């Protein structure tokens, strides 16, 4: 397994990701499977990493101190206008979840059925891959990724 330091192009959040190979990272990125855990943006790049070098026996450096977070700038939460925008996006996501129907992994299929008039028109939400969302948008079917909410982590 390869550990990469990753950085979100939208909010600048830094995080780690584990991949079977460099090709696996590339394939997941192209398929839209990589997402920022803070803002859910699919624009994720490899960040600069410090090399993982084992400490010499008797050097006084413990193994635990070698496995800390990757080098580079410490990630922080968005502030100012970005934080206000993110809060508004989270409020919108809460409203959609409260008023809409969770159709789960069948989101793309149900959105198409509603668009074609095969299902009752209503507000829905659920899960869809980046590829599915792109196809919906290309077909003129509105879809918007919802940001993750703090309560999702509980």
């Amino acid at each position: 397994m390869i550990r990469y330091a990753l950085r979100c192009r939208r909010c600048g959040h830094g995080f780690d990701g584990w991949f079977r190979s460099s090709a696996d990272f590339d394939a997941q990125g192209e398929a839209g499977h990589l997402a920022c855990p803070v803002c859910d943006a699919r624009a994720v790049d490899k960040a600069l990493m410090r090399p993982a070098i084992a400490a010499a026996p008797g050097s006084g450096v413990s193994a635990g101190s070698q496995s800390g977070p990757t080098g580079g700038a410490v990630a922080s939460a968005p502030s100012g206008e970005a934080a206000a925008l993110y809060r508004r996006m989270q409020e919108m996501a809460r409203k959609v979840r409260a008023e809409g129907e969770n159709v789960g992994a069948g989101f793309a299929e149900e959105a198409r059925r509603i668009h074609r008039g095969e299902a009752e028109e209503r507000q829905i939400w659920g899960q869809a891959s980046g590829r599915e969302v792109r196809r919906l948008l290309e077909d003129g079917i509105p879809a918007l990724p919802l940001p993750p909410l703090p309560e999702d982590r509980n």
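Helices lie at 22-30, 63-66, 81-99, 107-115, 130-138. The chain is about 30% helix and 15% strand.
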